[in-house]
Amino acid sequence: MKQLKNTLVAAILLLALFSSCQRNQEARKPISHASGTFMRQSIDRNKKLIAGEEAEIARVIRQNPKTKFIASTKGFWYSYSTYNHIDTLSPKKGDVALFDYEVKDLKGKVIYSKSELGPQTYFVDKQNIMTGLREGIKLMHRKEKVNFLFTSHIGYGYHGDNKKIGTNKPLFCIVTLRDFMSEANYDQKMKADANPVLETKNDSLN
To answer: In 3D, which of 79, 123, 86, 116 has the Cα closest to residue 101?
Structure first.
């Protein structure tokens, strides 16, 4: 009789445990569903945002029919103010790019001027700069001046730059690639500039 009682108690406990597990599993389903819904909604919002910005850029291109804009495979558009017909090399990882640029909004209002930003030194693909600028520089040749149109997702995105560039801001950047060289050559140049050779003067009285 005692053994039967113990068996009955054990069966009741197992049943309660199984029922509890089922409730816990069922309770987690809505969380997974809600998470999936949120992700889909977020993706849809981003698609609409990018489509709207691309429409703004298309309007800028239409308003400048004499300028030939090229669509990049990286999701931006660009045109040449100065084109280098001679050089064929472009900056790549392991190079140092020396460039100047200014940033405008799509209406042409200056956000950051060239003088405000100053000369730029960029270790290609090794420094954290705007995605569009990083990809755009790798298309350029020495002495070229290129106009870039960037959507916000390859610009400064949702957060902006926490200064002058606001949330989800498409940008118009004008970039001049002054020069580029290997990191080894750049290091040599920096050492030479830090220790300039003094000019030898002729002290002869003749």
So the answer is: 116
